[in-house]
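Me: I'm a chemist; would you kindly supply a protein sequence with its structure tokens?

Assistant:
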Amino acid sequence: MKQPLLAFNDKGIYCSQADVYLDPWRAVPKAIITHGHSDHARWGHGSYITQHMNVPIIKHRLGDINVTGKDWGETFTINGVTFSFHPAGHIVGSSQVRVEYKGEIWVFTGDYKTEDDGLSTPYEVIKCHTFITENTFGLPCFKWTPQQEVMNDINTWWSQNKAEGQTSVLFGYTLGKAQRLLKHLDPSIGRIFTHGAVENMTNIIRTMVDLPETVLITAETRKEDLPGSIVLAPPSAHGSPWIKRMTPYVTGTASGWMAFRGARRRRAIDKGFVLSDHCDWTGLLESIQATGAEKIICTHGYSDIFSTYLRELGYDARTEQSQYEGDEGETDTKESNETVTMEGGDL
């Protein structure tokens, strides 16, 4: 039996011909990395290859690593296998990996979304024979409202809270979601404050894209300066001693999971905004169709349901197990090494 160009094993997605892994979840000698979220870019590999905008991001998160950056579409060959990075539209520096060997083309998406968020390099359709897709939101009930409408709702919420003398605390993951929110917040409403973990990552992203001004919350920040402002913080800040200094405050979360009834209540959030950095059901289907691929491999998320539906459509679709959690499904443990000490407690 012919060995597949890419295969899933206990360490990750392996290309045996090139002896290299894509987004491995265990330490390997050589890793090709799609983006900076901690379930895809892990510490301990011998060397890393990634898109050049992702280099400062993973160096910030992983420390002193041996990493090489590549431009969009730049090809590099390992033992006859040709690789290249192409925009995934998920977060800044996020890539799909195109893999070609003897005329056979595979694409590994990592995480991706097709809506242009005005911050990430927009998703690019790559023609291929086999397409490895995430399925974080692979159910028909997930259908996203256009970003501009969601951001209008967020800015209106902030403005209303300001009129009532309250601080708006908006939770979003430190890498990706926080910068996307920041990009589209309306600074004319008031000042934008940040939690230390958000500020640290935002300063990395600022070197690549234009973002509104922010003010870091420190031990010297006066409580009376906060009402009427908005504070961007990681989800792990919710319920912590740090957040008590925001009183009086209201909380909001931006996540695809806010589409589920009861998700906001379970998280004890005052307001939920449905804003995801992943494809919805329609986005997944349209992306797959656009690639022209006949074989589809479904990974993390609702992969069993989604692959069953694809087979009904006539695709050669199957599932593979991975250790990708999806950044919107994590408990924000990725922030544990980016905490700051402030008055009112440690986060």
